[in-house]
Amino acid sequence: MFYREAGDFKTSYVEDSQTFPLRLDRRAYYVLLAVAFGVVPLFINDYWANAVFVPFLIYAIAALGLNILTGYCGQVSLGTGGFMAVGAYSVYKLMTAFPDVSIVIHILLAGLITAGVGLLFGLPSLRIKGFYLAVATLAAQFFLVWLFNKVPWFYNYSASGQISAPERTVLGHAVTGPNTTAAAKYLICLTLLFALAWLARNLTRGAFGRKWMAIRDMDIAAEIIGVNPLTAKLSAFAVSSFYIGVAGALLFSVYLGAAEVGEAFGIQKSFLVLFMVIIGGLGSIFGSFAGAAFMVLLPVLLKNVLVGQLGWATDLAAHIELMIVGGLIVTFLIVEPHGLAQLWRLTKEKLRLWPFPH
Amino acid sequence: MTDMTEGYTTADGRRIGPVLMDLRNITLRFGGVEAIKNISFDIREGEIRAIIGPNGAGKSSMLNVISGFYHPQEGEVWFRGRKRPPMKPYEVARQGIARTFQNIALFEGMSVLDNIMTGRLTLMKTGMLSQAVWWGRAQREEVAHREKVERIIDFLEIQSIRKTPVGRLPYGLKKRVELARALAAEPKLLLLDEPMAGMNVEEKEDMCRFILDVNDEFGTTIALIEHDMGVVMDLSDRVVVMDYGKKIGDGTPDEIRNNQDVIDAYLGVSHD
């Protein structure tokens, strides 16, 4: 009875199409934003930043990207890791080639480069669908990792074959390199995530979102009402790859600091992000956040409980952790195939009446 | 038959205009099978034109030729006075031809409102960047199109389900939403593939009313395939009859009713 739309009247189509139609939702959203931007940076320390917040923020960007492609446009991709590598190596080349240009511009450019590469690997989607497309994107994954391993130009001929991020600053604060504070890492990722999530929401609720969803739900009907499948699918690939590229650039430059392509951007990354999207909820912005939080937080939580509370040996705990995460994912998919976003929607439906039964 | 180059006036006094779509000697083959054999007919502006015939006569193939799914091996398609080159379905849609399907082809994961809004995608012009920023052009455009769509929602009396996901709707309503989506594109020519299949009498009456209203209020030209002879004879101004890919009759409902070939192939005679 406290959470409901009664009395919240809409008198224009603008009001009717806003992201949070309920006043209570809007307030909660503003409070969350204020806490995320104003309070968390004051208290964040290295452990929380490195174990929880920064990976969550970065993977949320990647999950948003994959959700646009797979959740909204219905094109399955297993190339996420490869596209993240494109973002990482692009930002590395740009950082080292143009040290005076702002890192923010480099990250966005890395996103654009990845969008171009994604567009290229999206071309097969015009001919093939479903599993076959997944295999084609898998080829992208392996090809890109191989490319960054084999061509020394990409890692500036370094002896180890690794790339490592030099120090770069934003507004006088280091955001990459060893001297970066936890708050600076957190804030740059949060700002980018906020901006990208807002753009993604706008794209998916407007004409582009409808084009993508139309292709997803029934491509023949989409074509008959005037959607060009070529531009719809390729735009989804480009936008999605842009997000994934930015996530890859951040993962390398802000979070890891140094990376080796096979290790940091292997096939596991592709599956990790795909799990996030499926568990969070396909075709939902909120689901991308929820899925990223679930996949980042669950291992941390389990580790704390098993090693910290129960005092098990670390190696045993690590194995058990894998089994539990795997089991939970399977259970989850059986109980709620539409993901955390659907659970959240159901909760909100129930809340409208709570605590009364009718 | 009177000279019809400038159109004609129907029995109920509606003025029918010049030819909108002209199909000339269309032949469509699938391998060795000739689905359509050398068929010619025209559809005039403001007309309700029915295509009837027994199962497998090639009616749906004909509709698919018009909407660009199939490309005939022989023959020409003339639309609005111009010969149409082979086109993809989405290009045909942009020319102002909308259609519904025999088996409903809605976007199940989207709400009724979103489904109908997709009908206006060809008319929405803002680019990706202004879409992403939303404020300003994209929002103004969205609201302008929403107003048009709401008019269609009112017209088809589906206000109460506008936010419902299409997957949850019953069959009759889905058919209505599909009509709404086609109408949202403001088509010059509306193709309806069995709009009344599987409906009960009440739903059929509603659908008939909507089809007549669409034709009357928006002046939309309609070509429909239908098996319910009562409906066809009541609604349509002129009827094409097909059998085994050939045209066996073309004319007003009265002419068709008394055409011996059509009676033999399709209508039959009552035995009472």
UniProtKB/TrEMBL annotation, chain A:
The keyword Cell membrane applies. CDD domains: TM_PBP1_LivM_like (cd06581). GO terms for cellular component: plasma membrane. Pfam families: BPD_transp_2. Keywords: Cell membrane, Membrane, Transmembrane, Transmembrane helix. It comes from Albidovulum inexpectatum. This is Branched-chain amino acid transport system permease protein. It is a multi-pass membrane protein. The chain crosses the membrane at residues 28-44, 50-69, 76-95, 101-123, 130-148, 183-200, 242-259, 271-296, 316-335. One of its GO terms (molecular function) is branched-chain amino acid transmembrane transporter activity. The keyword Membrane applies. InterPro entries: ABC_transp_permease (IPR001851), LivM-like (IPR043428). It is found in: Cell membrane.
TrEMBL record, chain B:
Coiled coil: none annotated. It comes from Albidovulum inexpectatum. The keyword ATP-binding applies. This is Branched-chain amino acid transport system ATP-binding protein. PROSITE patterns: ABC_TRANSPORTER_2 (PS50893). Signal peptide: none annotated. GO terms for cellular component: plasma membrane. One of its GO terms (molecular function) is ATP hydrolysis activity.
